[in-house]
Amino acid sequence: MNYNWNWAVLLEEEYLQWLISGLGWTVSVALCGWVIAMTVGCLVGVGRTVPNRWIRLVCTCYVELFRNIPLLVQMFIWYFAIPELVPDDIGRWMKRDMPNPEFVTAVVALGLYTASRVAEQVRAGIETVPVGLKSAATAHGLSTYQSYRYIQLPISFRLIVPPMTSEFLTVFKNSSLALTIGLLELTAQSQQIAEYTFQGFEAFTAATIIYVFIALIVTALMHLLERHTAIPGFVGKDS
Amino acid sequence: MIALQNISKWYGDFQVLKDCSATVDKGQVVVVCGPSGSGKSTLIKCVNGLEAVQQGQIQVDGQEVTSKKTNLTALRSRIGMVFQHFELYPHMTVLENLCLAQEKVLKRSRDEAVSKAEMLIKRVGISEHINKHPSQLSGGQQQRVAIARSLAMDPIAMLFDEPTSALDPEMINEVLDVMVELAKEGMTMMVVTHEMGFAKKVADRVVFMDEGAIVENRPTDDFFGNPESDRARDFLSKILNH
Prior knowledge:
Chain A is mainly α. Chain A contains ten helices and no strands. Chain B is an alpha/beta fold and 242 residues long.
């Protein structure tokens, strides 16, 4: 293979700035999407376990809808189709006046998609809480809301920290799909550097290393959270 | 205090409770016994509405458990319940286990709840473990915490669902001692148990169940001295021989 390695290109002012800016957008999309995913996901996940069957039905439909359509398709629907489907005024605003349309769309698409996955983790967590604890809470006069608030949710959130770590990591990786609707996040910037400099290996190696670093930081933080919230002697950890 | 009138319950086609009637008067201790699968635990869970019945009526302190108009959460908060597997909240310390329902259901102040909890934990003899988590305690200790947790609500009656069945033999007595003491203080109690020694010592009446029906419901001495049914005689001969 005849290839002129030139790692220094990454440190040239312009390209380094592109990478930094890409990293900024990646982190912003992922974190904002994660906020939506956690908020909506927790509500929907809890909704799938409540006694009211209509709430359960709506939440189940949400999960099946958002979980089963490829994220890329969802991204396109939010960006290209939704502005045409909503009332004209809103559609015009979305296309013309909405600030950072690529960013907002990516956050919404990523957030609502990830929410369906978070919801399933939350539901699984709640269903893992021993049924006897719920009986005990009920027997002591706690309402359904209080039973969730003080017993079922605190226990299930601790149980699902490990699988949630995976979801949190996935959000960062999935954020790269935002490049398809024109957001210049990390992957898009690397691609752009490759096109400008013909140093594709260097550009994508840089992106890879940055993604790995993000993942390691996230994993470490979630591990700290897991340690911090562990129940002494419960679920086999840190007894 | 507790009155069950002709209650029946089905799981699908299977009838778990067949036309059961029994009463527990104020200050009485009633032991419910019988072979496994006879419906004892289901019966006691119906008393505070943890299990629904399809037929019959249940009254506690004059309130209809089976009526939709009854505020069931308010009624439940006045009936203590102790479970076979303790069901202590694993993410809370012993102290928090005792304070939660006091503060959230009875709306007691933090200070009031804590002093009540400390008093009861001392009474069941585990003051030194008050800041530990349940899984750091032995089974017997956990069950005593569970009893204290129910007592913290100042219940008008206590339900015990096989409170010693999940315990190692050497821990059974420490739990029974607490229960005997409670009985002697005049607490109204309904106890599902296989501990016939406990029944003989403190029960006013014994209810014997088999296959979902109440076969005998008699004063303790009569039940042990002269069981009427063959089924009860058979049951007693099997468990008293050892």
